[in-house]
Each structure stands twice: as structure tokens, then as C-alpha cells.
Amino acid sequence: MFEYRITKYNPANRIDGRYAVDEWTSFSDVGKSFGKTELTYAKYLDTENAYIDCCIDLLSKAQILSLSVEQAECYSKDIYLPSTVSDVAEMRKLISACLREQCWFKLTGKNFFIHFGYDYYMYIGSVLPTVVVEKTATKYGLFCEQYPSPHNISEE
């Protein structure tokens, strides 16, 4: 399985592994300015939807019908985290809640995973060809880099 970091962050702006541009990193940044641009709710939603659409598209391409919800942590009484998810609408809702830091979890399936990290980082593991994952990320205005998920614990 190949692992990727898929984000809104352009890798060209990374210097010695550190992102050098002042950009928003969280839902809580809505209303704040970065550079000379305010992060509006609409702009935030565009990015959130790009992440979600990318996930759903990759799941479809990999023919994954269901994922397990693992290591779930819930920070809001309004969020219910099931043990598995197979409904696309429910998947969208769960990913949105995770991106908005209302919960955290790992989605895992056979030859596929989705993990979320701090600062709006998303990690995907898949047996899909790299070119398919890269093209899918690019289709949604996101950047794809081969990069291991820091949330994967080796069982070796």
C-alpha cells in the first residue's frame, strides 16, 4: 500500500520541511486574515468540500464500500461516531466533523485508510496507482505527496 499526504498546502512553499507561508490551519480560523485575505466561511467550506470530495472519489475509485472507524475521540455531544460507515452522506458528515475538530478518528478498510492530522493535514493509504491518487487530488485543487501517515503504527 502507498501512503500520501493530501493537503491544500503547495509543497513548493515548504522550506526544510516547514511550511513557509502564513495560511489558515483550522476551522477556528474563519473570520481571521492571512496575508491580506480573510478566511470567510464560504472559502473555508470550499476547501473542506474539496477534502471530502477527494476522499469520496478515491473510495469510489478503490471500490471501497465501507470503512471502520477506529481510535475514535469525540469532543462534541452533537457527534455520533459509529464503528463502521458505508453511507456516503454519513461519511461526508463524519469527515466534516473531523476537519472541524469536533472529533478525531481513523477510517480503515482493506487496502485503504484515511487519517487526519493537525493543521488540516490528510493522509491516505491505498493500493491505487500513484498517478490516480495524484490526479484525483489535483482535480479538487489539492496537493499530493508520497508521505507516510504519522498515525500509522507499525505492527512489526
Plain-language structure description:
It contains three helices and eleven strands, in the order E-E-E-E-E-H-E-E-H-E-E-E-H-E. With 156 residues, the protein is an alpha+beta fold. The strands form three sheets. A seven-stranded antiparallel β-sheet has the order 7-6-8-9-10-1-11. Strands 2-3 form a two-stranded antiparallel ribbon. Strands 4-5 form a two-stranded antiparallel ribbon. The longest helix is centred in the N-terminal third of the chain and has 21 residues, at 41-61. It is globular.
What is the count of β-strands?
11
Average predicted local confidence, pLDDT: 94
Q: What's the helical proportion of residues?
A: 25-40%
Order of helices and strands: EEEEEHEEHEEEHE
Strand content: 25-35%
Classify the secondary structure makeup into a structural class. Answer: alpha+beta
SS element count, helices: 3
Q: Strands of the biggest beta sheet: in what spatial order?
A: 7-6-8-9-10-1-11
**Oligomeric state:** single chain
Spans of at least 5 consecutive residues whose pLDDT stays below 50 are: none
